[in-house]
Every structure is written in C-alpha cells, then in structure tokens.
C-alpha cells in the first residue's frame, strides 16, 4: 500500500491521496462505496484516474519517489508536488502542495493484513497562486466561497494572506515579499485492496462569472 520501495505517500488504501492514485475517505469518492469502509484490510478503494500517468494503469502512479526509504521502520519520501482533494457530502477542497516530505511509522497489522502508517506527517509549502486556486474549488455545506467583495470572503482572504511565511525566488536586493505559506498535516493509513480505476468527479464551479477566487491576489 505504498509503504516502501518507490514510496507512495499514502498508499492505495491510505487516508490521504498518494501511492497508486488512491483516494482517501475525504477524497471525494467515498460515495462509490456501497457501505462505509470496514478499515479491516478488505476494503477495495477506488483509484482516482488523475493519480495515474496514463489514467488507467495502477502500475503507473503519478506521484513516485524512487529514492524513498525505510529506516528503523520509518518511511521517508519526497515529492516535488502532490495534489490533494478533500470532499464529503456537499463539500470539496483541492490543494497543491509543493516540495513535500512524507514520513510515517510502519506497523504490521495483526492477522497478516499488511502494513499501516501511523504518526504520519506531510510537510511542504503552498504557493499563494495555489491557495486561491484551491479556494476556487472550495464548497462547504453546498456553498462556494466566491470573490464577491463580501465580508466573509474578505476576512478569509485577509487571514490567508497574513499566513504567508515563505519567499519563493526572492530578489537579491530590495523588498522581499512572502508569496507562499508552510503546510503540514498528520495522517495515518490502513491496509486495503486496489479497487477499480474511476474518472474523477468534476470539481464544482459555483461562483458567478468574474467571482472565482482563482484570479485573486494578496493586496
């Protein structure tokens, strides 16, 4: 399940995207299950086609680290870019994280079900362009966050822009402006089986023309 060797970041049955393009429970594909996952190693997770190079073969994962390794039962992998999609009933958020390091403790499941990752950590950075691009896909309780000049959007934008703490490609002289924010999240995975490759669900676009956050910038 992506726990060593070429180093998938969450495995096909992980609780986050990665490995062979697997989709976690927040990956917008949970509705494809006839019943809730049992988390017992027997769940067959659907594979998001956008996580595969050819969109069809689980042997061609889009995100691979051939230098990933395991030392003292700790998996370590690095990826130039990872795309995550979180979703649920009437909810969606897609983000791109760059220069991502993935670490986690490998533990054997009882009854020979396989390996799982505990104490997992992903860390990287989120470019401001990716921040606004991600919020263009944001839906919460069926409502989008649109650049409509309203109080909620402006407050959200202000908080995000205040969180910028990384300067990418800073100039040799003059004022240095931060244009990215550090990103980190914890995760864990469970053994699972590879399910069918399925096309991605279309990302929602609920904002009126001209109000997409994707075109916004920090003031």
Helix and strand arrangement:
Elements: E1 44-48, E2 69-71, E3 74-88, E4 91-108, E5 115-127, H1 128-135, E6 139-140, E7 143-144, H2 151-162, E8 180-187, E9 193-198
Parallel strand pairs: 1-9
Antiparallel strand pairs: 2-3, 3-4, 4-5, 5-8, 6-7
Entry summary:
The protein has helices spanning 128-135, 151-162; strands spanning 44-48, 69-71, 74-88, 91-108, 115-127, 139-140, 143-144, 180-187, 193-198.
Number of helices: 2
Proportion of β residues?
25-35%
Give the rounded overall mean pLDDT. Answer: 83
The biggest beta sheet reads: 5 strands, antiparallel
Helix content: under 10%
Features:
9% helix; 33% strand; 2 helices; single chain; mainly beta; 219 residues
Q: Please, could you describe this protein's structure?
A:
By secondary structure, the protein is mostly beta strands. The protein has one domain. 9% of the residues lie in helices and 33% in strands. The protein has 2 helices and 9 strands; from the N terminus they run E-E-E-E-E-H-E-E-H-E-E. The strands form 3 sheets. It has a 5-stranded antiparallel sheet, with helices on one face. A two-stranded parallel sheet has the order 1-9. Strands 6-7 form a two-stranded antiparallel ribbon. It is globular and about 55 Å long.
């Amino acid at each position: 399940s992506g726990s060593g060797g070429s180093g998938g970041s969450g495995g096909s049955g992980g609780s986050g995207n990665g490995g062979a393009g697997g989709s976690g429970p927040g990956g917008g594909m949970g509705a494809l299950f006839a019943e809730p996952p049992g988390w017992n190693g027997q769940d067959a997770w659907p594979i998001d086609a956008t996580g595969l190079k050819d969109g069809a073969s689980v042997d061609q994962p889009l995100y691979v680290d051939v230098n990933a390794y395991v030392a003292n039962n700790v998996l370590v992998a690095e990826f130039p870019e990872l795309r995550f999609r979180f979703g649920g009933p009437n909810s969606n958020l897609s983000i791109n994280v760059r220069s991502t390091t993935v670490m986690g403790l490998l533990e054997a499941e009882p009854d020979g079900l396989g390996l799982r990752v505990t104490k997992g950590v992903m860390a990287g950075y989120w470019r401001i362009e990716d921040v606004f691009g991600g919020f263009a896909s944001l839906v919460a309780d069926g409502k989008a966050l649109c650049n409509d000049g309203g109080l909620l959007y402006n407050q959200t934008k202000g908080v995000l822009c205040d969180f910028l703490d990384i300067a990418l490609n800073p100039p040799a002289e003059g004022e240095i402006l931060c244009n990215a924010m550090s990103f980190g999240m914890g995760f864990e995975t469970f053994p699972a089986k590879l399910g069918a490759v399925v096309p991605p669900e279309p990302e929602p676009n609920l904002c009126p023309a001209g109000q997409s956050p994707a075109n916004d910038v920090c003031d």
